[in-house]
Amino acid sequence: MSSGKYLQFISFMLMFIFIILPTECKADNFPDRAGHVNDFAGLLQNKTIREFDNYLRELWISTGVEVVVLTVKHMNKLDENTYAMEIFKRWDIGATAHDGVLIFLSMKERTALIEVGYGLEQILPKDLTRSILNKNMIPSLKKNKFDEGISGGILSISTWIKAGRGNITGKVDSSLKEGG
């Protein structure tokens, strides 16, 4: 093998190892979407998943805002912001209007996050989503009451969405009880 061919071969192998292979491996870090509620960590009861999924589907139909829940066992060494943003893009949450919200939990890293699409930042600014996490979700999540914690987040987010979209009746939404 001539030195020119050898250098080409080495260049190709290095490119494969450092560029192509990591890209292929990263694709496996992200699950496929199953619906509005994607409980890959196995935290929620089946009945709760169905109730949350129906509620979020109705919210999407009535407001045009897509709220998706994702739980995972781990994030494959990615940080929560990178993982959530990648899921947001891959699953096209909120579509072209960016009217979407991702409620994200990772068990190994013990992290929870609410990611909001650009189209909803006026209705759900960072300070508000941080408050929703801290007041309506994390206290229950710390007690391993996952149905209750996620329900608290969904109810609070949906209330703000309905108010922001002028679609609120003034009644408390009883179709989704806290704690499933």
In short:
The protein is α/β, with parallel strands linked by helices. It contains five helices and four strands, in the order αβαβαββαα. The chain folds into two domains: 1-30; 37-164, Diaminopimelate Epimerase, Chain A, domain 1.
Residue fraction in strands: 5-15%
Helix/strand order, N-terminal first: HEHEHEEHH
**pLDDT under 50 segments (min length 5)?**
21-26, 168-172
Question: Biggest β-sheet: count, sense, barrel?
Answer: 4 strands, mixed
Query: What does the average pLDDT come to?
Result: 85
Terminal Cα separation, in Å? 68 Å
Number of strands: 4
Strand order of the largest sheet: 1-2-3-4
User: What name does the CATH topology of the largest domain carry?
Assistant: Diaminopimelate Epimerase, Chain A, domain 1
CATH architecture classification of the largest domain: Roll
Helical coverage, percent range: 40-55%
Could you explain the architecture of this structure?
It contains five helices and four strands, in the order H-E-H-E-H-E-E-H-H. With 180 residues, the protein is an alpha/beta fold. Strands 1-2-3-4 form a four-stranded mixed beta sheet, sandwiched between helices. Strand 3 and strand 4 form a beta hairpin. The chain starts with a helix and ends in a 16-residue tail after the last helix. It is elongated. About 6% of the residues have low confidence. The chain has two domains: 30 residues; 128 residues, Diaminopimelate Epimerase, Chain A, domain 1.
